[in-house]
Amino acid sequence: MSTPRVLVTTAAEATIDLLRDENGPLMFHQSGGCCDGSSPMCFQKGEFRIGGNDVWLGQIHGCDFFMSTSQFEYWQHTQLTVDVTKGRGASFSLEIPLGVRFLIRSRLFTEEEAKDMLPVREGEEYLEDQAAE
To answer: Which InterPro entries has this protein been placed in (predicted)?
Structure first.
């Protein structure tokens, strides 16, 4: 089994379940900064426009997870874990009205894990695959 690039905590899964019940299918995009810092942002699936400058890293709790290609250059050797904490983030992410915010915990992959990484897909490749399904 391939080493996943992104994981999710049980607490974050519970928040995702609440959001999915209210909003339907969801997706995540790891923000690269600006007004929201560097937070994983949750959107209704398809609400955030994915393109050639994005990379699909995998799924967490049934939700596709993306980040920009330029940011991936820095994070490619790091396993990300999506977690949730109390507090209001400064973003457009769906969890904000719940009084919580998603955050990333990270660690470097071991040499053994790096040998069997889950492959990433470029945003356009991902979109083509979705259109074919």
So the answer is: DUF779
Calpha distance 107→34 (Å, rounded): 23
3-state secondary structure of 129: helix
The helix/strand/coil state of 106 is strand
User: Strand pairing partners for 54?
Assistant: 68
From residue 74, alpha-carbon distances to 32, 79, 89 in Å are: 11, 12, 23
Per-residue pLDDT of the chain (133 residues; tens, 9 = 90+): 799 999 999 999 999 999 999 999 999 999 776 555 578 999 999 999 998 899 999 999 999 999 999 899 999 999 999 999 998 876 789 999 999 999 999 999 999 999 999 889 888 888 788 888 7
* Token pair recorded at residue 38: 């560097």
